[in-house]
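Incident log, structure service

09:12 report received: a user says their structure output differs between two submissions of the same chain.
09:20 pulled the input from the user's history:
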Amino acid sequence: MSEESKPCPQCKSPFGYQSGGELFMCPECGHEWNPTDVIVDQSGLAVKDSNGAILQNGDSVVLIKDLPVKGAPKALKAGTKVKNIRLTEGDHNISCKIDGFGSMALKSEFVKKA
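09:34 re-ran on a clean worker, output below:
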């Protein structure tokens, strides 16, 4: 064992422990990871979904509530899956394309990781 604990890359808990071999486990969120596979985001941008899971560029998310769209005749429905998101700075921190609506900016508090 090279280190006794490592912070969890998903929830940032400092209590990650080695669970056999090279794998580490987080007692708080249950995430299991290999520290050699973890890619650190160089920009330092940490965007979390409504459940607290950390989002990354290219993830897929699901809307958790109906969202009205300014200038559109209908709202985005809860349960709509959005693929290949891009994280941005600011209040609306997810940039994406939604079928039938086009390019959108969403708030991460209204989505959950798919």
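09:41 both user submissions now match this output. Likely a transient worker issue. Closing.
09:42 reviewer note: The chain has two domains: 1-40, 47-113. The chain has a mean pLDDT of 85.
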